[in-house]
UniProtKB/TrEMBL annotation:
This is Sodium:proton antiporter. Residues 13-389 form the Cation/H+ exchanger transmembrane domain. The chain crosses the membrane at residues 30-48, 91-111, 165-187, 194-212, 232-262, 269-293, 305-325, 337-356, 368-394. It comes from the Bacteria. It comes from Oceanidesulfovibrio marinus.
C-alpha cells in the first residue's frame, strides 16, 4: 500500500509543477493520469499487479463523483437557464434522451449477447459528458460565450440526470425475487432512492446553509473554516442519503443545486476546498482507473468495443445534438462543434465500477466497451480541444452565418 501511495503522491506533486505548462498543450490531465496508471501496472516496476480492490476503487470513485456532482451543480450558472436557456435546455431535455436511445439501439445491434436492459445500461453509462475533460473548451475565450455556457451547464447537470435512469435499468436487470413484477419493483426502489436522496440532499443543505448564515452573523466562523463548509455538506449529503437507503448521488446533485442558489454571496469561498478535494480525488481515480481497469481491458480487447466507442463519441452524440439544435440560431459548424465536444469521463468510470459489482451476465462487455470509449475520448477530445476551439472561434467571428 505504501509504495503505491508514495508513487501517486510524488506523481501529483511533480505534475502540479508542470500542470500550467501542460495546459497550454494538447496533452490534457486525464491523458497523463491514465498513462501513469498504466505505467504503475508495468511488470518492470515490480509492484503487485492490479491489487486495487473493487471495494476500494468504488469507494474512491463514489466520493469523487459525490464531490463533483455537488460542486458542478452548485457552480452551474442557472442564470443561463433563465436568460439564454434554449441551448442547455435542448441539450439536456432532447439531446440527452436521444443519445441514450441511439446508444441503446447501437448496443443491441453490435452486442447481440447483451439483454435489452444491459444495452440500456451501457447507453446510459456513456451518455453523460465530463465537465473536467471539457474545460479546455468551456474556458477558451475563442469560443463564443453562449456555447461555452451551454456546454458547461450541460456537463454539470447531465450526470445527475442520468443517475435515476441507470438505477431503473440496473434494478430491472438484476431482479431475481419473482415476488413483484420487475417493473413495479424497479420503480418502487428507484422512487425510494430518488425520493430519499432528494429530500436528504435538500434538507442537509438547507440546514447547513442556515447554520452557516447564523454563524457568519455572529462572527463565529473565519474565512479559513468557511472553505471547508461546502466539502463537508457535499459529503454529508452523500453519506446521509446512503445511510438512510437513498441515492447519495441524487442527494449530492440536489444539495449542490440548492447550495448554489442559497449561498450566492459566499459560494466561491465555501466551495473552494470541495473543488480542490474533487480535483485531487479525480486525479487518484483516473490513476487507479489506468492501473486497475484499463490494463485489464487491454488484455480482453475486441474490435466491437472500438466500433461502439467511435459511434458513441460521434453518431450517438452528434446526431442527437444536431437534431436538438435544429431550430436554433446556430450554423452547421456550431452544431458540429457542440456535438463533438461531449467527452466521457469520471461519471462513466463510476457507473462502470457500480455495474461491475452488480455482476450482470453482460458485465464484461459493458465494462470493456465503457473503458474503450473513455480512453478514446480522453485522447481524441484532449488532442482536439485547443486547435478546434481556436479554429471554430476564428471562423465564428469572421463569418457568423446563421440559419434556422
Amino acid at each position: 500500500m505504501y509504495e503505491h501511495l508514495a508513487l501517486v503522491a510524488l506523481f501529483i506533486f511533480f505534475y502540479s509543477l508542470v500542470a500550467g505548462r501542460l495546459e497550454r498543450t494538447p496533452i490534457s490531465g486525464p491523458i497523463v493520469y491514465v498513462l501513469f496508471g498504466l505505467l504503475l501496472s508495468a511488470p518492470f516496476l515490480g509492484l503487485p499487479p492490479r491489487t486495487v480492490s473493487a471495494h476500494v476503487l468504488r469507494g474512491l470513485a463514489e466520493l469523487t463523483l459525490a464531490l463533483v456532482l455537488f460542486t458542478d451543480a452548485a457552480n452551474a450558472d442557472l442564470n443561463v437557464l433563465r436568460s439564454s436557456s434554449k441551448l442547455p435546455r435542448r441539450l439536456l431535455l432532447i439531446g440527452l434522451p436521444l443519445t441514450i436511445l441511439l446508444g441503446f439501439l447501437g448496443a443491441a445491434v453490435i452486442f447481440p449477447g447483451l439483454t435489452l436492459l444491459e444495452a440500456a445500461v451501457l447507453a446510459t453509462m456513456l451518455a453523460p459528458t465530463d465537465a473536467a475533460l471539457g474545460q479546455p473548451v468551456v474556458e477558451n475565450a475563442a469560443v463564443p460565450a453562449d456555447i461555452r455556457d451551454g456546454l458547461n451547464v450541460e456537463s454539470g447537470l447531465n450526470d445527475g440526470i442520468c443517475v435515476p435512469f441507470l438505477f431503473i435499468f440496473l434494478v430491472l436487470s438484476v431482479d431475481t425475487t419473482g415476488h413483484i413484477a420487475p417493473l413495479g419493483l424497479a420503480l418502487r426502489l428507484v422512487l425510494e432512492e430518488i425520493g430519499i436522496g432528494a429530500v436528504t440532499g435538500a434538507s442537509v443543505t438547507l440546514l447547513g446553509v442556515l447554520a452557516v448564515n447564523i454563524s457568519k452573523k455572529q462572527g463565529w466562523i473565519s474565512d479559513e473554516w468557511s472553505q471547508l463548509t461546502g466539502m463537508a455538506l457535499a459529503l454529508s449529503c452523500f453519506a446521509t442519503a446512503q445511510w438512510l437507503g437513498g441515492s447519495g448521488f441524487i442527494a449530492s446533485f440536489t444539495g449542490g443545486l440548492l447550495f448554489g442558489y442559497l449561498a450566492q454571496p459566499h459560494k466561491k469561498l465555501m466551495l473552494s476546498a470541495a473543488v480542490d478535494a474533487g480535483d485531487i480525488f479525480g486525479v487518484v481515480t483516473w490513476v487507479a482507473f489506468g492501473y486497475a481497469v484499463v490494463s485489464i481491458a487491454v488484455e480482453g480487447f475486441e474490435w466491437r468495443y472500438l466500433i461502439y466507442a467511435v459511434l458513441s463519441l460521434t453518431l450517438f452524440r452528434m446526431l442527437p445534438v444536431w437534431l436538438s439544435l435544429r431550430h436554433m440560431d446556430l450554423n452547421r459548424g456550431s452544431r458540429l462543434f457542440i456535438g463533438w465536444f461531449g467527452p466521457r469521463g469520471l461519471a462513466s468510470i463510476v457507473f462502470a465500477i457500480i455495474v461491475l459489482e452488480e455482476k450482470l451476465p453482460g458485465g464484461r462487455t459493458i465494462l470493456m466497451t465503457t473503458v474503450c470509449t473513455i480512453i478514446l475520448s480522453v485522447f481524441a477530445h484532449g488532442f482536439t480541444a485547443e486547435p478546434l476551439a481556436a479554429i471554430f472561434g476564428a471562423r465564428r467571428r469572421a463569418a457568423p452565418v446563421k440559419e434556422s
